[in-house]
Specification:
single chain; mainly alpha
Length: 175
């Protein structure tokens, strides 16, 4: 029974996570925390911190963690298969449709609105990953602004920004 639930949850996540890596987070939280209670909210945030360290897609790492926690290796396999099934089917259909309707203003408008909603959900999840009181500390705010500027205005690879932050955290301490 739990394998079917895992399959359904990650099929839905894969189906509706439009817009990239962080668009998965609100969907994962809704399914694995709120709907099924497989992870607590705190565990979700802890796992989010852990999965950010490792390379690869966030959805795959969450699917692996959750599936393995709930049903071992078979759970991890089922979660990942379901997670990838929807996007594979959708991209095949989308490729066909896009090649035929890419100049349609309705299609362009739909994608524009979807981008705005995904942007809003990513910001919401970002605010859930840190305490607002931490953002109000000058040192932390300076780190956030510096990382944002480095990411947006330079060609520095994001991995080096993350590693630099980790090294800075070790040297300066937190808070």
């Amino acid at each position: 029974m739990v394998l079917l639930q895992i399959f359904g949850a990650f099929l839905r996540i894969g189906l509706f996570a439009i817009g990239g890596a962080y668009s998965f987070l609100p969907l994962i939280q809704k399914e694995v925390v709120e709907r099924y209670g497989w992870l607590t909210k705190q565990e979700f945030l802890d796992v989010l911190g852990i999965v950010k360290i490792f390379p690869g897609a966030i959805s795959i790492k969450f699917a692996t963690y959750t599936g393995y926690k709930m049903a071992g290796v078979p759970g991890a396999i089922v979660a990942n298969f379901a997670n990838m099934l929807s996007p594979v089917i959708l991209i095949i259909v989308a490729t066909y449709l896009y090649s035929h309707y890419k100049t349609s203003s309705s299609v362009k408008n739909a994608f524009s609105m979807i981008q705005l909603v995904v942007f809003a959900m990513i910001i919401a999840v970002a605010f859930q990953t840190v305490q607002v009181s931490e953002l109000l500390q000058w040192k932390n705010l300076a780190i956030v602004v510096a990382a944002f500027a480095l990411f947006l205005f330079t060609k520095i690879h994001p991995a080096f920004i993350i590693l630099g932050a980790g090294i800075l955290g070790i040297l300066l301490g937190k808070g």
